Amino acid sequence: MRRGPGACGCSAEVLxxxxxxxxxxxxxxxxVAASVFFLMRLIPGDPATVVLGDAATPEAVxxxxxxxxxxxxxxxxxxxxxxxxxGGDLGRSITSGEAVGPLIxxxxxxxxxxxxxxxxxxxxxxxPLGMLAAWKQNSWGDVAAVAAATFLxxxxxxxxxxxxxxxxxxxLGWVPVVGYVTFAEDFWGALHYIALPVATLALIETGVLIRxxxxxxxxxxxxxxIAHARAKGVPEWRVLARHAFPxxxxxxxxxxxLIMGSLLGGIAVIETVFTxxxxxxxxxEAIFARDYPVIQGVxxxxxxxxxxxxLVVDLLYPVFDPRVAAG
Amino acid sequence: MRLRASILAIAASLGLSMAAPAxxxxxxxxxxxxxxxxxxxxxxxxxxxDGLVWHVLEGLVALRGDATIAPMLxxxxxxxxxxxxxTFPLRRNVRFHNGQPLTAADVAFAMERYRKRETNWRxxxxxxxxxxxxxxxxxxxxxxxxxxxxxxxxLFLTMLARPDCGxxxxxxxxxxxxxxxxxxxxxxxxxxxxxxRRGQFVELxxxxxxxxxxxxxxxxxxNKTPMVxxxxxxxxxxxxxxxxxxxxxxxxxxxxxxxxxxxxxxxxPGMSVHSSPSFDLQIIxxxxxxxxxRDVRMRRAIALALxxxxxxxxVTEGSSRPARAPIPVGSGFxxxxxxxxxxxxxxxxxxxAQEAGYRGQPIRIVTTRRYEAFYEIAVLxxxxxxxxGINLELEVIEWATQLQRYTRGDYQMMAFGFSARLDPSLSFxxxxxxxxxxxxKAWDNPEVQAMLDASMRETDPARRRAIxxxxxxxxxxxxxxxxxxxxVTHAVTPASVQGYRSWAVDAPRAWGVRVQR
Lengths: 327, 517
Hints:
The complex is a heterodimer of chains A (327) and B (517).
Chain A: H1 11-42, H2 47-52, H3 58-68, H4 74-86, H5 100-135, H6 140-154, H7 157-171, H8 187-221, H9 224-231, H10 236-264, H11 268-273, H12 279-289, H13 292-320, H14 322-326
Helix pairs in contact in A: 1-13, 5-6, 5-8, 5-10, 6-8, 7-8, 8-10, 9-10, 10-13, 12-13
Chain B: H1 2-18, E1 27-32, H2 47-56, E2 61-63, E3 69-71, E4 78-79, E5 85-89, H3 104-115, E6 134-141, E7 144-149, H4 156-161, E8 191-197, E9 201-206, E10 217-218, E11 221-222, E12 230-235, H5 239-247, H6 262-267, E13 272-277, E14 281-286, H7 296-305, H8 308-316, H9 336-339, H10 346-355, E15 363-367, H11 372-386, E16 392-396, H12 399-408, E17 413-418, H13 424-429, H14 446-457, H15 461-478, E18 481-485, E19 488-493, E20 497-498, E21 514-515
């Protein structure tokens, strides 16, 4: 049984819990940083060779490696990188020369906007649908919901994205096929550009969440306290909303946390199909180019995302399942 | 009721934002398959970067469509009788994007930066080599630049005009930060840099005071008058999305359409396809130091077992012609003999392989799926060589790894492609050289190296042609590589675009192009 904060509602306790969790996460982040740093250098392929292409002379490669600081011993490179990273400087991109910190934050904003919108939409669709399917287990509605979830799970995201582009961008002309603006620049324009990627991602994730919401609700509806509530004559909607939902949603919340962590770390395929300048595309391009500083920075951010998302999920857990706090 | 009104308001707003922003109709929108790396000419670059930079910066000389060299910022080029002194009188009416006139001091300033080691200019080594050594850049008066070489070189002007060298583009000193690092290009080109939104687009603005040459556009030379107010290079990595963007009217030029999409695009009303042979080269490399492939009979057996015309037809869906010489068909130095492909001869291949002591052991060919053509070449070669009893095994690796193995010469065979080379000497040089110092070179033959060096020094075209013919004959004898074909670039534009043309270097040109929607 998890032991979460918030049992006493005391904000000092919550704060101390959060700080403790973040402190405990530091070795994890250091481990991730070290693993990524050394693993990337074990992979064949050299940034200088990629930059110079098929005309790379040994002298030009050597010059560029010096310029990138790759001529130094790997341990020295790592120590320098860690030292700068602790000071908030994640270095500069080998391919574009941009400062890595601002670059990944800029790209993360694009990814985050799409992920939050699509996961929010998916939760709004999937959780009620999954619960209703469980409530009417084995009915035609349940079968239809499970079939729809399985279908959505089976669709590759790039394929669905391309179909959406074809139908809504090309045939109907409702949305532009390429482009992106931020919400700060043009709110409605931004909605316009992210509509298709959000719809694509939301549909895919809806499939996963319907199955989880349904399974956990089926399990909860079999418990004695639900039978007891029904025997007391509590209305069925209240049984579902008041008694079944909090317990049934808790496992779904964990899944949402995992989904958020995984998607915030990059939705490269969606970003490529919809030409969005997000974190996933940045990471994939950086890996192809062996752009070490960008890869290290993005992976570190992904590790931070997982730590934060898990922490948020743990903090939210007692809200839905009081047993966690009580335990 | 309020909800309905809100929905209608949202719908109306969406409808409004669907309309193009004011002024957008004046922009030419071109697909770019990846972001540019920088705006620093010939330094942190790739083909997209070169293609963007040549809209903004110009050099003293420029490349014509047939890979010959024409004056650009220079009025003409005067070469001394001994071939050691190049005099470039500058055009008088040229201004930088900041309004300053072009002077010889600007040229000297730019060349000085290129020649500094810390600049990491791609072509610094080429202008400081045994064949071509630039010893001085002088400015006898504000409108004349003199460059001196250590010895005559047939390649000097080509080096200055090469797109991958940033055309040795002349920039104003305002392009640099106070510490000497690159800030943004202030050049003399037909467009000036507008906004670069990384990962999304690069926008150029028409340079109203551009001093265009008269005549027609020709490669990167000739008349480069900008016809549109803005050019937006929109970054669309995915080919299918790029095609959809063209059809939806979100871009005006798809400069690199896939061959497989052409029948459908041609069938659509108003769409025009602009095809042009490129100066690149798709090739199979063989490692001549490998215990098995060291024997020339084994390499010849492999070459004879390949049905090159069929392989090229299958990989390019009939759009490219097979060629066994590295000199592209569009070059003035390409001869008919270089297009003749020896017939496939399986019996001879089997016999030669047997004489070389081949006993069916596997030969590994390195390839990648990053460039589909490389993979298809390897698969087809495997199938064709099987007919001659030669056992080829595919080693499919990631592109950066393949590039590193190419650079180290770490392969038995490799399906590979060379980017465009603009001089026949460079076409041979890309795979010719001493392996001891340059392991990436496939052809290490001292006699050929001597011929190559001679071709770089010789300035008489007829004598150069004779050298290239001799090198080609030797190439067919030694078979360190099997040259296959130069690819064809297919651009597609809708009816609203006029004046767009593909050309030998694989990146678009926006000058001389109109959009009338």
